[in-house]
Amino acid sequence: MRIALYQMEVVPGRPDLAMEKVASWLRGLEGIDIAVLPEMWNTSYELERLGELADEKGRREIDFLKGLAQEKGIHIVGGSMAVSEEEKHFNRSVIVNKQGEVAYQYDKIHLVPMLDEPRYLSAGEQFKTFELAGEKMGVIICYDLRFPELTRRLALEGAEIIYVVAEWPEERMDHFTALLKARAIENQCYIAACNAAGECNGTVFGGQSMIIEPTGQVLAAASQKEETIIADIDIERSTAIRQAIPVFESRRPELY
Ligand SMILES: NC(=O)CCC(=O)C(=O)O
């Protein structure tokens, strides 16, 4: 299974231009099974303007992703997008399969205080695994990465790949890279982390997207600039590693 991550330079406050960029990126992909976008790719952190920028239930972006998924015959982990719903705003991840159907939607559970999200956004209340290409997977959004309970539960539910879609600022990149590796090692699953590049309202995003295998070894890594990274995922790897280091069998959940 070949995965491509688009470490996109954001186009703050211009969903129309962001969609043009994403369309041209997706149309240029060849031989890819799953394409991944970063967090808030449609608006970036123009939170004060979400009333005018975010579409109701994200229909505009979802229809756009559905069309491209079918046109290219590719599954799309649609990063996350600012969407409106019943006069609230959410940071929502949408997964579209290659048949052009929405396979899963997830609203960010942990809103990040450092970027003022709790002031402008409503938090999600639930999460679970989803299936693409017959495999179980999970997705979390940026600040969620600091809460290992999410990835552990997704792994316990059978997720073989966990996507981390992000707009992680450059000043905390050491946290980003350390936490990504920890989540891969402790859960013995693939982590595919797609960060953004560029800048919004003075916050510079740190890039360094990566695809990490269940041992913690980095299969592909990006610089800080706009870039695409690609890696082949072999789901059997996690089974072999879970047999060699049987963390899940050694757990003592009754004690913690
Ligand atoms: N977009 C985010 O959630 C940023 C998270 C962040 O800056 C951090 O956890 O540090």
From TrEMBL:
InterPro entries per the record?
C-N_Hydrolase (IPR003010), C-N_Hydrolase_sf (IPR036526), UPF0012_CS (IPR001110)
Recorded hits in SUPFAM superfamilies, A to Z, give: Carbon-nitrogen hydrolase
UniProt keyword list: Hydrolase
Q: Where is the CN hydrolase domain?
A: 1-235
Read off the Gene3D superfamilies from this record.
Carbon-nitrogen hydrolase (3.60.110.10)
Matching Pfam families: CN_hydrolase
Family classification: Belongs to the carbon-nitrogen hydrolase superfamily. NIT1/NIT2 family.
Tell me the protein's name.
Carbon-nitrogen family hydrolase
**Which species is this UniProt entry from?**
Macrococcus brunensis
